[in-house]
Amino acid sequence: MTETRRLQLHLGKCIEDLDKLHNVPDLKTKRATLLCKTAQKLFEKAEEEKARGDEENSYVYYMKYLRVIAFITKDKEYLKDKTYFNNMLGSKNPNKAIDAAEKLKNSLIDRYAKEQKAKRLHDIKENELIKQKIDENRKKAVEAITVHEPPTPLGLPGLDEVTIKSEQLYSILKSGKLKVMILDARPGKDYLESHINYPACISIPEECISPGQSAHVLEQNLPAASRLVWAERAVMELIVMLDWSSTAVIPGKTLHLLKTILLKWDVKVQYSRPPVALWGGYEDWLLKYPAFTTNPQAVPPSQDCMLDDMLGEIDYPNWSDLNPPPPAQQPAAPARSTKPGEPVIDRSSKVAAVQLYEERSRNMQLILEEQERIADTSLTLEMQRIEAEQDWEKVREQRETEPRDELRAMYQLREQEIISQLMQLENKQFDMEQENQSLREQLEEYQRREREEAEKLAETIAKAAEQSASDADAQAAEARRQAGEQAGREVAARRARIAEVRAQRRELDRRREALELERKRKLAEARMRRKPQDEDGDTFMEPPEDSSEAQGLNRSQSSPNIAKQEEEEEAPAPAFDRSTKPHKVAPSSDMHQRDFQPVWGDVGRGLTGLKNLGNTCYMNSIIQCLNNTAILVTYFCNGQYREHVNRSHSTRGAIAEELAAVVRALWSGQYRFIATKDLRNEVGKHQRAFRGAEQQDSHEFLTILMDWLHLDLQFSIKPPQKEGLPAAERAWQEYTRCRESLVLRLFYGQIRSTVRCLRCGERSATYDSFSNLSLELPAAANRCTLQDCLKLYLNGETIPGWNCPKCKEKRDAVKKLDISRLPPVLVIHFKRFYVDPKEYMSNTYRKKQTYIDFPLEDLDMSQFSLHCPGNPVYNLYAVSNHYGSMEGGHYTAYCKSSVYGKWYKYDDHVVTEIPASEVKSSAAYILFYTSCARS
């Protein structure tokens, strides 16, 4: 195994420089559980940096991790339950970190020494070369020979390159032969402190750049000094972007967002070549060309933003704290002598009561702080919604008035992004409100307990005051009273802050409602003038007619239309005995040219988006989830599926071949997004519901697609011996009939349904297959867990009037479900759509916005299944989300890349990186889990 390539040293010049970086702030106010989570993140970051070859960062993270561990081992909570916290931390991780830190330290000391030595040798050689050059120039002057030197090549990066070296940029700037613009995307304050000393170097502050932003909106947010140069970008021959230290343009990061704004949403400018990023960022430039900066003394940020969020401003203990001495035993207080007849006062109970009261008061403070955070976040989301709606109105008007088709198409894509952003902001606000409601309930419970304990405490203090005239007791009581008053003032201040933010939120709500009414009025006027018709029947952008039921924002028609599903079911095809004549073999779909309508762009493998062809976001969401199923991707990309294509099925193998072609295109890494016209047309041939541009259900599409793929890719297997097989295995063999497929082996499982007579106990078991588990949600619950849904699904239900084979009469019975066969890929669907009981006769459907807490890792299905073969532990790798309501909605997908190990959001044609913390939301509709044995 080859050793991981070590990255260039960049944090310091000696080990002492690194030792200054792993000091951390005061941890006394941090709880042990939170510190354990922080330690885990630091350890994972250290391992990640080590795997990346960055020894300096890895050493710093290991040292931070060890300092946190040192403090945890002295914490009271840790001392009470060492086993629990050691299991949380991982028993082997501290020793592993110590060994790794020691090895890294030795390696870094050696590398720093070698680098210093190499630098000295380089300086000596450089001095010798300078002397040699001077001698040669003198000789040439004496000989008076004119030498025409060839021009120095500018060293421009190729059109397919995304970065430029500092040396190349320096050579270009010195030559002055090209028009160059430098876009400094660091925070604005960092640019003011120091930047490249070049007239066309301008600040594009990081805080002004956001996803889905147009160049026009960005220009309005730029500093005044930057706008004049920014206006000249169309005539520039080279545009260079930079941040502090990036070496690549990573989707979701600042430089990628800026590049997207320039190339996709700068409709007025056609760039001669794509912008490139400065390799290593300003930090690399500052190191190599300090004289070419406005301030060579600037210091790059040494702390990772993630650490700032986790640890704040903290001081860390010394190495000696790694083995803290056991806590000294408190000497017992001498017994107080009492007079005859005087009652004995138990002072320890009073201290315990005060500690309990203070602990609950602290818990209340934490809840109020969390409520304040939620209020601030909710206010920010509301402001973002207003800005997005205003941006949407501008883009819609530009699209309607734009005469050129290509620009109208760009505005249309931009409009799709804004609508999707609005729906997701609304969903985040809903989740915030649910979380705030939970905190409010906790606060009320703490307040109730606080009142009870306060009454008990007051009674205890009153008795103590009567029985003791001690000045110390009086002073302690006064101190407690003052502390209580101070805590009360702090609580009142926080509540006032929360009330203030809520008032601002209500004002923004009123402002947004006014904008909504104005927008509806303009839309009504536009409909009266003309009815717009987009290419490809794309009605994603056109809101439905206003109705009394639809409130707020009208959305894309991609949510399930369950009411129409029964009407649009295909009539069953007549059965024919084709065994009497040869099968008609359809030609391979690989023989024709597909119309992907690709938009070219250098993106990561598997990070290509899918264009919305008119409410096809339900289809795009499912395709992206399947496109991140690693084994299925390999099967399609290496061509193995061709050996199994079944031409005798009604679809002639065409569904599988079209999906395989889409998967290969998505994994080519050369398209920003593509269109799936051929796959959509093929699907529409065999299911009428998927032909038009009406809203559909992603779960229905997934279920039908799974069955198609299984039939399209079937192959025969040798019949097994049925004698002696368990009932579940016999039922499985009867279901497959010796015809299997990779899709069947990956996605299909088995359910055992057992009916038991309540009178005689007679049991009857049947077995059914499934490609996904469809779970009910607990009634009237705003929040629940995946475990709650699984228990509800598998719990027994009473069946009246069951024909008992033993009693020979109708009896009450209990029906119980059990999972008898777990698939390697477990797909779980939540039944969010239901018939409104108030409007049952009109078959009106509503959506449950329940927040479901589901694990991202280590879902243990052993408690929900029989003794199934294989590993019952699963990790999440994809989620199909639904936003909006039955009146209109939108689908996206969250998928974890098997290549990059990160989560990405697939929102039709836009793909961006997201943190794992955003994966859970009340929009989760279908979950895709893979067995840990395969992940």
Summarize the structure.
By secondary structure, this protein is an alpha/beta fold.
Kindly describe this structure.
It is a single chain. The protein has 935 residues and is of the alpha/beta class. It has 25 helices and 26 strands. Strand 4, helix 11 and strand 5 form a beta-alpha-beta unit. It is globular. It starts with 14 loop residues before the first helix and ends with a strand.
Name the poorly predicted regions: 145-153, 303-350, 530-591
Strand content of the residues, in percent?
Answer: 5-15%
Total E-strand runs = 26
Report the helical percentage: 40-55%
Largest sheet: 8 strands, mixed
Mean pLDDT: 77
Q: Total helix count?
A: 25
The value of Rg in angstroms is 34 Å
Structural category? alpha/beta
For the record, give the distance between the C-alpha atoms at the N and C termini, rounded to a whole number: 22 Å
User: Can you tell me the overall shape?
Assistant: globular
List key phrases describing it.
single chain, 935 residues, alpha/beta, eight-stranded mixed β-sheet, five-stranded parallel β-sheet, globular
Furnish the topology, listing elements before pairings.
Blueprint: H1 15-19, H2 32-52, H3 55-72, H4 76-80, H5 82-89, H6 93-143, E1 163-164, H7 166-175, E2 180-184, H8 188-193, E3 201-203, H9 215-221, H10 224-230, E4 238-242, H11 254-264, E5 276-278, H12 281-288, H13 305-311, H14 347-401, H15 405-467, H16 471-529, H17 562-565, E6 599-600, E7 609-610, H18 617-627, H19 630-637, H20 654-666, E8 671-674, H21 677-686, H22 698-712, E9 715-716, H23 727-736, E10 739-740, H24 742-747, E11 749-757, E12 763-770, E13 773-775, E14 783-785, H25 786-794, E15 797-803, E16 810-821, E17 825-830, E18 833-835, E19 845-847, E20 851-853, E21 859-860, E22 873-885, E23 888-896, E24 903-907, E25 910-914, E26 924-931
Parallel strand pairs: 1-5, 2-3, 2-4, 4-5, 7-8, 13-17, 14-20
Antiparallel strand pairs: 6-8, 9-10, 11-12, 11-16, 15-16, 17-26, 18-19, 21-22, 22-23, 22-26, 23-24, 24-25
Helix pairs in contact: 2-3, 3-6, 14-15, 14-16, 18-22, 20-21
